[in-house]
Amino acid sequence: MAKRSSLSIRIVEGKNLPAKDITGSSDPYCIVKVDNEPIIRTATVWKTLCPFWGEEYEVHLPPTFHSVAFYVMDEDALSRDDVIGKVCLTRDTLAAHPKGFSGWAHLTEVDPDEEVQGEIHLRLEVVPGTRACRLRCSVLEARDLAPKDRNGASDPFVRVRYNGRTQETSIVKKSCYPRWNETFEFELEEGAAEVLCVEAWDWDLVSRNDFLGKVVVNVQRLWAAQREEGWFRLQPDQSKSRREEGHLGSLQLEVRLRDETVLPSSCYQPLVQLLCREVKPGTQGPGQLISLIEETTSTECRQEVATTLLKLFLGQGLAKDFLDLLFQLELSRTSEANTLFRSNSLASKSMESFLKVAGMRYLHGVLGPIIDRVFEEKKYVELDPSKVEVKDVGCSGLHRPQTEAEVLEQSVQTLCAHLGALLSALSRSVRACPAVVRATFRQLFRRVRERFPSAQDENVPFIAVTSFLCLRFVSPAILAPKLFHLRERHADARTSRTLLLLAKAVQNVGNMDTPASRAKEAWMEPLQPTVRQGVAQLKDFITKLVDIQEKDERALSLQAPPVKEGPLFIHRTKGKPLTSSSFKKLHFSLTTEALSFAKTPSSKKSTLIKLANIRAAEKVEEKSFSSSHVMQVIYTDDAGKLQTAYLQCKSVNELNQWLSALRKVCINNTGLLGSYHPGIFRGDKWSCCHQRDKTDLGCNKTRSWVTLQEWNDPLDHDLEAQLIYRHLLGVEAALREKHRQLSTGPEAGRGPTGPGEAPRDPLAELLQVLGDLQEAHRSSPAGSPPSLSRILELQT
After folding, report:
1. Residue 12 and residue 52 in contact, taking contact as beta carbons nearer than 8 Å
2. Would residue 344 count as lying in a domain?
3. For 8, 358, 380, 537, which has the most beta carbons within 10 A of its beta carbon?
4. CATH number reported for the structural domain that contains residue 464 in this entry
5. What share of the chain is helix, strand, coil (3-state, %, to 5)?
6. Residues 151 and 105 grouped into a single domain
7. What is the mean pLDDT of the chain?
8. Would the pLDDT of 463 be above 50?
9. Cβ–Cβ under 8 Å, residues 688 and 156
10. Taking 50 as the threshold, does the pLDDT of residue 728 lie above it?
11. 320: number of Cβ within 10 Å
12. 617 pLDDT exceeds 90?
């Protein structure tokens, strides 16, 4: 069993930010740090004081994390980016909001004395003496201190203060991982100070020393314990008075912390088997449990439940059957064809999740080139005459401004070209569409045609498919390509307008060019010839898509694509000095077997590291190569000797995505390291801690538990079952009430059975399974109150 924590983060928007540029505006973006570790960087929104991001992330991290901070920055091309302000949420704050923190938060100033990080290793003892007891403080080492100097390091020393006396350690030059092993003693007297203060400082020759953090120890508690040793987290100096909040603007956030104790797989088997029995072909009855889950799920958490159920059934090879059951349930309660799959039902939400999990690579292949073209061309496109601004367009000939009619005509041509290119790419992609997606659409098409067989409803099966493919998948990706990983940055205002108009055109095609869709915006009329042609192309595409019968049932399982791929820079000067100029650009591919590289994406790949040999994937200090975003992959070679490969990424997001992908696929490797060196071995010592033994144990903890959730994550069967259990436990009262009603109603005692079997009551079985799981959680060690030693461990 394991304790797992995750943070669901949505960075919505900012408002009333201060102007940092001479133009009276700013170019804001956000950096998200968990315990001072940069995890996420949003896209920059240019020239605005009220930016909108709308970016969502999920971070998996250890239960012992302390805080998550959101820094709003102003991007500058010629100088260092300016810090506008920050919002910091502690773990305790998030734990106090079980449904998540949601709302506006004022940005506060970033005070260098409060920007502390790292831990210090202390041994504290009360030593008996002949005349009086003595307080002994051994300052052993520190790790992950904040880099305060321009070289990306610090020159740390420690100041120990007690009862008016101060003692200091020696200075360790150019290290954020210093080792001192120095001991200090103080006399303990009646009426003496009740606290011992241990402060870490960065020594500076010219300017004042920089504060690195402090630990305050309660001497009375230490007197009772006599001896205490461990890693203590450095705390900021919060003695300064704050300026009034609100002058730096605000940030709208949605942040939710979830802690889960995941039991062994065997505990979840009864729940998984019961749910699978509901959807398995040939054994399903009316889908009673799935219907009840939908009935008792509130709108606000329906997407979450749909995604979890989908992943659970994907792991059991029953995703297509689960979705087919949802199609039948929705069709059974739908009387009007034009309302089919238009609500946020469990079927709609599950299909949205299914397309993202199973069809994202397909979407990138079809839509990616068109989106890239829109971004690169940056053409002015506008169809609404009331919004045309001729001055934004430029000249059509020899210094003659374009007329409004010319702008509109050119816009129609541009949009028709993009729409035609997209529909042509879609038409050619029948075989490229994943088999499990084709099979699911084929089942949907067949069910809808059976429910609405009349000639007047001949377009309804096509619209059912396009309601998911176009309206809930392709169009949202066009509107927000950054959120679908199609682009690294948000579009500017001009490109956003082009994307919006293209998305509207795709929606009209997806709606089969119905009169209702045409009536909404009459100025879209010039696109109608292309839209009508697109409808014919789309219907032909869907006909071919649902006509392909899968010969091999194994094709219906999700094919395992590369976990991660893309260009990286690798250090290739083996045995020579490590420098930032010794990196070579190659194309890397991470699969469930190996990390491989090639000169180009299409050339033959060579294996760099076998997956089973990886022992850690961690960041490298910026000062090591005088370069940002470098990671190290520590692995064993054929002789069993530890080796390190250094890889450089182009951004903090790419760095964390690669680290996350490597950590996920190596999570079950044997021999994973618990510590590592964040520096490099240059000359005769490590650059981080200055140790001279190259085989020395690392000076910092590995962060194998910090990962980012992605659409192509490996399935985690036990976690998905735990999340479903947690949801059902929350609606247990409603389920029991439903069971009481069914038990006393006319349907009591009826249920699907096998030959010679007594009638089954799935809901009663579910309630029994929930009770058993509840008992298993109560009796698990993780479910019992933490011990005193564990509390001290969490505090330090």
Report:
1. yes
2. no
3. 358
4. 1.10.506.10
5. 40, 25, 35
6. no
7. 86
8. yes
9. no
10. yes
11. 23
12. yes
Do 458 and 380 contact (CB within 8 A), yes or no? no
Same domain, 38 and 161: no
Tokens of 622: 């910026």
Residue 771 lies in a domain: no
Q: Whose structure tokens read 């001055």?
A: 391
Q: For residue 420, what is the enclosing H or E element?
A: helix 404-427
Give yes or no for residue 532 having a pLDDT over 80: yes
Confidence grade of residue 405 (pLDDT, cut at 50, 70, 90): confident
Among residues 361, 289, 368, 281, the alpha carbon closest in space to that of 321 is found at 281
Q: Which of 497, 517, 550 is the last residue of a domain?
A: 550
118-148 confidence digits (pLDDT tens): 999 999 998 887 777 888 999 999 999 998 8
Per residue in 17-51, pLDDT (tens digit) is: 999 888 889 999 999 999 888 999 999 998 999 99
| CATH number assigned to the domain comprising residue 98 | 2.60.40.150
298 close to 332: Cβ distance less than 8 angstroms: no
Alpha-carbon gap, residue 182 to 140, rounded angstroms:
6
Number of domains in the chain: 4
- For tokens 């505990």, name the residue: 267
DSSP-assigned letter for residue 551: S
Are 395 and 367 members of one domain?
yes
Task: Report the C-alpha gap between 178 and 170 in whole angstroms.
Answer: 10
Do residues 378 and 527 share a domain? yes
- The confidence band for 747, taking pLDDT boundaries of 50, 70 and 90, is low
In terms of Cα–Cα distance, which of 611, 641, 6 is closest to 304? 6
H helical segments located in 256-383: 265-279, 288-295, 302-315, 319-332, 346-377
3-state SS class at 382: coil
Beta bridge partner(s), residue 638: none
Per-residue pLDDT, 576:
53
pLDDT at 785: 39
**Treating both helix axes as pointing N-terminal to C-terminal, what angle do 460-469 and 346-377 enclose, rounded to 10 degrees?**
60
pLDDT of residue 333: 84
Bigger pLDDT: 222 or 268?
268
What secondary structure, in 3-state letters, does 729-758 show? HHCHHHHHHHHHHHHHCCCCCCCCCCCCCC
Instruction: Give the residues across from 58 on adjacent strands.
Output: 8
What whole-number distance in Å separates Cα of residue 682 and Cα of residue 703? 23
Residue 745 confidence (pLDDT): 62
Nearest to 220 by CA among 183, 186, 192: 192
Average the pLDDT over each of 122-126, 164-168, 423-427, 572-576 and give the range with the smallest value: 572-576
Q: Is 638 exposed, middle or buried (0-12, 13-18, 19+ CB in 10 A)?
A: exposed
Per-residue pLDDT, averaged over 308-322, amounts to: 91
pLDDT of 774 above 70: yes
Distance of CA 675 to the CA centre of its chain: 24
- 212 domain residue, yes or no: yes
- Please tell me whether residues 403 and 457 are part of one structural domain: yes
* pTM of this structure: 0.84
Residues 84 and 143 in one domain: no
pLDDT of res. 98? 87
The strand pairing partners of 111, in sequence order, are none
Amino acid, single-letter form, for residue 677: H
On whether the CB atoms of residues 667 and 719 are closer than 8 A, the answer is: no
In the numeric block, the tokens 């140790």 are attached to: 691
The answer on 541 and 397 residing in a single domain is yes
Residues pairing with 31 in the sheet: 41, 71
Tell me: pLDDT of 573 over 60: no
Please tell me whether residues 703 and 584 are part of one structural domain: yes
pLDDT of residue 790: 35
- Pick from 708, 736, 770: which residue ends a domain? 708
Tell me the two tokens of residue 438: 């084709």
What's the domain range around 673? 564-708
Indicate whether 659 belongs to any domain.
Answer: yes
Pairwise CA distance, residues 614 & 636, whole Å: 7
